[in-house]
Amino acid sequence: MLETGALHWSGDLTNFDALIDEVLVSRMARVKPGPLHAKAFARWVDALPAPRPSTPTDTDAITKGSALFHDATIGCATCHAGPKLTNSSLADIGKGPGLKVPSLVGVAARAPFMHDGCAATLADRFGACGGTAHGSTASLTPDQVSSLVAYMESL
Ligand code: HEC
Question: What is the separation, in whole angstroms, between the first and last Cα of the chain?
Fold first, then answer.
């Protein structure tokens, strides 16, 4: 969390201190912690483990999905890049200007997906709610979408 740049879907909170001000103090009406407590709080949140994926059943689909995900013509890994599967930037994927590229680590455990929760399943992300400029997905076959979903369920 601490290494993925600005926080929140719109990246409007530049760091964890800004998040404390907005969420804890402003929205939840709590007392602002001192700097040492704020730092410890940030480290604790950062250390929370991502949900573990369930044991994969279809390893063939995961392998195919991984290849598609990293295929430059489809483009997923240009934004969902590196070990945290985010380039820590804002991107316009046709869902409004500048949304934070989310990490996909443990993604399967946090449905519904997308900032507006429009995708009940990972497969729904490839439909209309996924955005019009969200990777080159128009020519994916249903089988390829299933493989990409299997791959994302393994992250
Ligand atoms: C141009 C950068 C970019 C590319 C390319 C890209 N994404 Fe994303 N992705 C984003 C952004 C930004 C969001 C957040 C958008 C939103 O929530 O409305 C997102 C959201 C997601 C989500 C929802 C995550 C969540 O926590 O709700 C999934 C799943 C996802 N992308 C998968 C993919 C896949 C699979 C590909 C390739 C087909 C891909 N993305 C290509 C930028 C990108």
Answer: 16
